[in-house]
C-alpha cells in the first residue's frame, strides 16, 4: 500500500466513525427526549371518511362536517362539579400570565412574582378588558392593560387605581376561583352552585420529593361529552375488541380489524386485559379500575405483564399507576377539561423514576397514546345513548353512570343552555 492510499483509507475510516457517532447521538436524542404527542380535533378519527371522500376535502373540512352533523344524543349536563386542569405548571413561569377558556368560563391564570398560581375571571370588572391579553404581573397582583387597575391574585381584590385619588370601592373585585397546584398541574374548582371545594386532588409523594420527574406527555382535543371519557374505564367489554390488537397497528381501526381478521401485519403480539371497576368505599368522589394487562406472543406466552390502577378522582382527573416486575412503578396522569360542551381537552403526563425515563417512559406514553386514540376514533363519531341496552357483563357501566351523577347539581349547565344547539365551527 503506498502512502497516498494509506491516508485515503484513514480518512474514509474517520468519516465512517464520525457518521456513526452522529447517528448514535441523534438516535439517543430521540430515544431519551421525553415524547410530546399533540393531536387536534381533526387529527384522529376521520381516516375512513378521508379514504372515501370524493370531493377532495381537507382533513379539517371533513372532520368539521362530520362533527356538525353528528347526533349529540340526550346528554347529561355539560360541566360537572369538581377540580379541572387549566394548564400544566411549566406553562406559566413566575410573573407570567395565560388566558384559558374552559367550562363555559374565561379564566386568567397567572403566577405572582413569588411564584404562587392564581385564577381570576378574565374580564376586568372595571370596563371588561381581558386580563389575560396584554396584562402584566406586579408583585402579587395582575395589572389590567386598559386603565392599569391592579387585582390581587389571592382574592381578586382591586389594590390600586393609578389615576384615582379616592378610596378604592369594596366592590372593585375580580371574581377569584379556588385553585390548586400539584403534580405538575394548575387546577380550578368548578361548582355550578358556587360551593367551596369539598375534596382535594391528592399529591403524589414521589413527585413532591422529586423522586419521580416528568417523562413525557400527550395532549388531545376530543369531540365528546365529558362523561364518555371516564366511562371507558368501566366499559370492560370494549378492551379486547378495541384495545386487543397490538399497538403496532396504530390507531386506525380499519388496520386493527384487518390485523385481527387475516393476521396480516403483526399477529404475534396481542393485548389481554382483565378489569374490576368499583367505587371507593371511603371517598365517594373516587372510583378505581384495577387492570391486569398482558402482552402475549402468539396468543399464549406472556411477554410483558403490567398491573394498572386507574383511580378516577372526580369528573376530570385520573391517576394511572403502572407496576411491572420488568420496569417498576410510575404514574401517568390523565386530565379531562371541557373547553366547550362537546369538546374535551385531554392531557396525559408521565412521572417516573430516573431509570424508567427515556425509551421506557416514551414507550409507556406512546402505547397509552395509541390506545387512547383508538377510543378517540369511537368518541369523535359516536352519539350518547341515555338508556343503553346493556347485558349483564356491561353492569359496571350502569354502576359508573350512577356514581358519576354525584358531579351534577341543580344548576349544572345543559347543552342548550346558551339557546343554540349547534356546535361552533373551529
Ligand atoms: S378595563 Fe380594566 S382597568 Fe379598566
Ligand atoms: Fe378504551
From TrEMBL:
GO CC terms of this entry: cytoplasm; membrane
Its UniProt entry gives the catalysed reaction(s) as:
cholesterol + NADH + O2 + H(+) = 7-dehydrocholesterol + NAD(+) + 2 H2O; cholesterol + NADPH + O2 + H(+) = 7-dehydrocholesterol + NADP(+) + 2 H2O
State if Metal-binding is listed as a keyword.
yes
For this protein, the record's InterPro entries field holds: Cholesterol_7-desaturase, KshA-like_C, Rieske_2Fe-2S, Rieske_2Fe-2S_sf
**What EC numbers are recorded for this enzyme?**
1.14.19.21
Pathway of action = Hormone biosynthesis; Steroid hormone biosynthesis; dafachronic acid biosynthesis
Gene Ontology molecular function: 2 iron, 2 sulfur cluster binding; cholesterol 7-desaturase [NAD(P)H] activity; metal ion binding
Pfam family of the protein (one): KshA_C
Biological process per Gene Ontology, one example term: cholesterol metabolic process
Has keyword Ribosomal protein?
Answer: no
Q: Which cofactor does it need?
A: Fe cation
What are the transmembrane regions?
12-32
Places the protein is found: Membrane
Q: Where is the Rieske domain?
A: 83-188
This protein's UniProt keywords: 2Fe-2S, Iron, Iron-sulfur, Membrane, Metal-binding, Oxidoreductase, Transmembrane, Transmembrane helix
Family to which this protein belongs: Belongs to the cholesterol 7-desaturase family.
Q: What is this protein called?
A: cholesterol 7-desaturase
Lineage start: Eukaryota, Metazoa, Ecdysozoa, Arthropoda, Crustacea
Amino acid at each position: 500500500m503506498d502512502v497516498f492510499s494509506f491516508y485515503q483509507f484513514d480518512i474514509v475510516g474517520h468519516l465512517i466513525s464520525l457518521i456513526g457517532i452522529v447517528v448514535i447521538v441523534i438516535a439517543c436524542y430521540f430515544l431519551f427526549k421525553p415524547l410530546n404527542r399533540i393531536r387536534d380535533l381533526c387529527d384522529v378519527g376521520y381516516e375512513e371518511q378521508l379514504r372515501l371522500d370524493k370531493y377532495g376535502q381537507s382533513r379539517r373540512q371533513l372532520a368539521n362536517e362530520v362533527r356538525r352533523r353528528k347526533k349529540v344524543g340526550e346528554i347529561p349536563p355539560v360541566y360537572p362539579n369538581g377540580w379541572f386542569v387549566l394548564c400544566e405548571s411549566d406553562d406559566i413561569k413566575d410573573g407570567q400570565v395565560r388566558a384559558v377558556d374552559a367550562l363555559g368560563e374565561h379564566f386568567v391564570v397567572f403566577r405572582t412574582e413569588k411564584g404562587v398560581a392564581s385564577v381570576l375571571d378574565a374580564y376586568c370588572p372595571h370596563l371588561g378588558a381581558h386580563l389575560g391579553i396584554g396584562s402584566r404581573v406586579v408583585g402579587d397582583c395582575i395589572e389590567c392593560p386598559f386603565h392599569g387597575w391592579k387585582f390581587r391574585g389571592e382574592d381578586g381584590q382591586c389594590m390600586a387605581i393609578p389615576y384615582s385619588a379616592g378610596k378604592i370601592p369594596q366592590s372593585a373585585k375580580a371574581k377569584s376561583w379556588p385553585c390548586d397546584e400539584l403534580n405538575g398541574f394548575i387546577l380550578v374548582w368548578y361548582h355550578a352552585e358556587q360551593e367551596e371545594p369539598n375534596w382535594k386532588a391528592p399529591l403524589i409523594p414521589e413527585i413532591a420529593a422529586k423522586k419521580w420527574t416528568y417523562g413525557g406527555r400527550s395532549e388531545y382535543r376530543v369531540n365528546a361529552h365529558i362523561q364518555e371519557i371516564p366511562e371507558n374505564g368501566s366499559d370492560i367489554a370494549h378492551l379486547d375488541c378495541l384495545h386487543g390488537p397490538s399497538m403496532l397497528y396504530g390507531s386506525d381501526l380499519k388496520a386493527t380489524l384487518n390485523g385481527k381478521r387475516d393476521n396480516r401485519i403483526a399477529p404475534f403480539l396481542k393485548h389481554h386485559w382483565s378489569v374490576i371497576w368499583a367505587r371507593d368505599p371511603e371517598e365517594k368522589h373516587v372510583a378505581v379500575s384495577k387492570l391486569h394487562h398482558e402482552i402475549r406472543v402468539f396468543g399464549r406466552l406472556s411477554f410483558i405483564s403490567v398491573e394498572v390502577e386507574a383511580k378516577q378522582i372526580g369528573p376530570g382527573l385520573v391517576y394511572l399507576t403502572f407496576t411491572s416486575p420488568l420496569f417498576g412503578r410510575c404514574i401517568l396522569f390523565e386530565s379531562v377539561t371541557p373547553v366547550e360542551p362537546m369538546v374535551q381537552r385531554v392531557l396525559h403526563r408521565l412521572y417516573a423514576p430516573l431509570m424508567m425515563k427515556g425509551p421506557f417512559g416514551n414507550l409507556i406514553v406512546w402505547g397509552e397514546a395509541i390506545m387512547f386514540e383508538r377510543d378517540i376514533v369511537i368518541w369523535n363519531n359516536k352519539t350518547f345513548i341515555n338508556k343503553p341496552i346493556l347485558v349483564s357483563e356491561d353492569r359496571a357501566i350502569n354502576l359508573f353512570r350512577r356514581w358519576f351523577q354525584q358531579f351534577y347539581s341543580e344548576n349544572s349547565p345543559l347543552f342548550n343552555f346558551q339557546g343554540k344547539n349547534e356546535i361552533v365551527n373551529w
